[in-house]
Specification:
Number of helices: 14
CATH architecture of the largest domain: 2-Layer Sandwich
Helix content: 25-40%
Strand content: 25-35%
Largest sheet: 11 strands, mixed
CATH topology of the largest domain: Dihydrodipicolinate Reductase, domain 2
CATH superfamily of the largest domain: Dihydrodipicolinate Reductase, domain 2
Length: 428
């Protein structure tokens, strides 16, 4: 076959090395599928002295050589982070090169700039691997569901936090104990902040919301809460209700048709499909007007799973290039309002440590009522002079809940607001 497409890779880490290995080891298959020979020309790395699986002849420590090389047709960006990735991608686009990226942080923060530049030059930007790794998700949302109306997207999109919460649920371990285990097994970084505090999931939530509701949503629009405050007692309370706690990225339309986007620990019924997603696996649950309920499940990270999604995008971009077309572009026609976090409506589980004396329950109930937060159920357990109240609410706004919690925290009879958790499912 005489047709050849030349590719440069920015980033030679775990994913980058896996991508190169897939391209080199499956060359004939990929040529047949793409319609052209795919040749890896250069791979940029930070440190040339490190031992790598990538052939040394391909390596460079000057990424600008890739984006400025007129013989390179497509750039695969796997560096991560905002800079220099953004500058390099924009430079590649300015020279008429299509881009495949897995950079969720960049797309969530400044995807608009990237997509606008690509549209201006008539080139592709594909990003299947940016959310949920190997799971085919972006393409179905951009293409397969283009004729539908998505109402809500809920996803377990961070493997580290799901591993931790799974272990806490199944073994009764506390958070810090399981976090150490996750670090030892390689599921969590030495600095796990991006994962456990929800930053990683928030970036993915912004991308999913933008796709689902045809509106530009940035990571700054996402209300975020991590799992570091989830206790063994919270897990036990969820179990008592036949629920499980998951860190969910949620994007949905409000009653006013605004977009609400948030990431937080969430109680979901054990009968819900997302409840069965264990350990480091990811899953995204979509509710659409016509297609109904859909769930996408698989490995959300790892070298070869992520490389699979990257190479799949590359094949699509090559096909587009050969036919002199571009794939789906950014769709922002709806231009919906992004709802303030305080307007988000959901149900809540609130655990209170209170004084065990007459009138406490009535006093607490009055506080909820003053802020228009309706109580669905309440369970009281006495412990000598103290008691625990576990309150399940009907749907209310985040703003009303925050005001309720503030007042509860200042009450003499409330020793501590131990936890506040959102609830999705049968109780909401």
């Amino acid at each position: 076959m005489s047709k050849k497409v030349r590719v440069g890779v920015l980033g030679g880490g775990v994913v980058g090395s896996s991508v190169v290995e897939l391209l080199l080891s499956h060359e004939s298959d990929l040529t047949a599928r793409a319609g052209a020979e795919i040749e890896v020309v250069k791979v940029s790395v930070r440190d040339l002295s490190r031992t790598r699986t990538v052939p040394a002849a391909l390596l460079t420590d000057k990424p600008e050589e890739i984006v400025n090389d007129p013989s390179i047709d497509i750039v695969i960006e796997l560096m991560g982070g905002i800079e220099p990735a953004r500058t390099l991608i924009l430079q590649a686009i300015s020279q008429g090169k299509s881009v495949v990226t897995a950079n969720k942080a960049l797309l969530a923060e400044d995807g608009a700039t990237i997509f606008a530049a690509a549209a201006n030059k008539g080139v592709d930007v594909y990003f299947e691997a940016a959310v949920a790794g190997a799971i085919p998700l972006i393409r179905p949302m951009r293409e397969s569901l283009a004729g539908d109306q998505i109402r809500r997207v809920m996803g377990i999109v961070n493997g580290t936090t799901n591993f931790i919460l799974t272990k806490m649920d199944e073994e009764g371990s506390d958070f810090n104990q399981v976090l150490k285990e996750a670090q030892q097994l390689g599921y969590a970084e030495a600095d796990p902040t991006a994962d456990i505090e929800g930053f990683d999931a928030a970036a993915k939530a912004a991308i999913l919301a933008s796709l689902a509701f045809h509106t530009r949503v940035s990571v700054a629009d996402v209300a975020r809460e991590g799992i570091s405050q989830v206790s063994a007692q919270d897990i036990a309370s969820a179990k008592a209700m036949n629920h499980v706690i998951k860190l969910l990225a949620i994007a949905e339309l409000t009653p006013t048709q605004a977009v609400a986007v948030r990431v937080h620990p969430t109680l979901i019924p054990r009968a819900h499909p997302l409840a069965s997603v264990r350990e480091a696996f990811n899953a995204v649950f979509i509710e659409a007007q016509f297609a109904g309920e859909l769930m996408f499940y698989g490995r959300g990270a790892g070298g070869f799973p992520t490389a699979s999604a990257v190479v799949g995008d590359l094949v699509s971009v090559v096909r587009n290039r050969l036919s002199e077309n571009v794939g789906p572009t950014e769709s922002t026609y709806a231009d919906r309002v992004v709802a303030p976090a305080a307007d988000t409506i959901t149900s809540y589980l609130i655990r209170l440590d209170v004084s065990d004396r007459p009138g406490v329950l009535a006093s607490v109930a009055q506080t909820f009522a003053r802020h228009d937060v309706s109580i669905q159920t309440v369970r009281q357990t006495g412990r000598g002079e103290d008691a625990e109240l576990v309150v399940m609410t009907h749907k209310a706004t985040e703003g009303a809940l925050a005001a309720t919690v503030t007042e509860l925290s200042g009450m003499d009879v409330v020793r501590d607001v131990a936890s506040v958790l959102r609830v999705i499912g049968s109780t909401s």
